[in-house]
From TrEMBL:
This is Leucine-rich repeat-containing N-terminal plant-type domain-containing protein. PANTHER family: SOMATIC EMBRYOGENESIS RECEPTOR KINASE 1 (PTHR47988). The keyword Cell division does not apply. It comes from Oryza punctata (Red rice). The keyword ATP-binding does not apply.
Length: 178
């Protein structure tokens, strides 16, 4: 019988490995991220990736790159990430509940994709989060009370036809585009 180590084999161990594995699961028809070089020790010189002085990833700026595919729960292991900007792509599927572990996240901008499913209540753990833009998607259900309770957080949620907003005033929020 073959040894089984499936769980660990699938688990990328560095920021570069996490990002590469995610990118391999995406469609990138323009080769926008083709310079994501697996031979580098860290991803700090990769296009649209920014690190801090300790070579830890703090920003992903992946706006308008025609990327399609899903968000990966593994991205939640980039634990210094402050800005996740994935505006105006064709990302589908749901927001991984694991994103509630991105404790340094300041901005989560997913505007103008086709992301569906509920907003994970776990995002209410993100005490650093100031800006969450989820407008122009296909999210469903209520905005969780856990998020409504974060007084420093601005949520832009227009143009999600199936999203409900209990406890929030602006039901027909102005659509400002992305
Ligand atoms: C959504 O993204 C598409 C493709 O990048 C773009 O053409 C369109 O203008 C964007 N819509 C908004 C509201 O930003
Ligand atoms: C909001 O931000 C202020 C200033 O950074 C901080 O003192 C306060 O604790 C924050 N409130 C919450 C609920 O996180």
């Amino acid at each position: 019988m073959a040894p089984t180590a499936a769980g660990n084999l699938a688990m990328p161990s560095s920021a570069a490995a996490i990002l590469l594995l995610w990118w391999k699961g995406l469609s990138d028809p323009n080769g926008a991220l083709a310079n994501w070089d697996p031979d580098l020790v860290n991803p700090c010189t990769w296009f649209r990736v920014t690190c801090n002085g300790d070579n830890r990833v703090i920003r992903l700026d992946l706006q308008e790159m025609s990327l399609s595919g899903h968000l990966s729960a593994d991205l939640a292991r980039l634990d210094q990430l402050q800005f996740m900007e994935i505006t105006s792509n064709n990302i589908e599927g749901s927001i991984p509940p694991e994103f509630g572990n991105l404790e340094n996240l300041i901005s989560l901008d997913l505007c103008n994709n086709t992301i569906s499913g509920p907003i994970p209540p776990s995002l209410g753990k993100l005490k650093s989060l100031k800006f969450m833009r989820i407008d122009h998607n296909l999210l469903t259900g209520p905005i969780p009370n856990e998020l409504v309770g974060l007084s420093n957080l601005t949520i832009l949620f227009a143009n999600n036809p199936r999203l409900r907003y209990p406890g929030m005033g602006a039901v027909d929020e102005d659509d400002t585009g992305c």
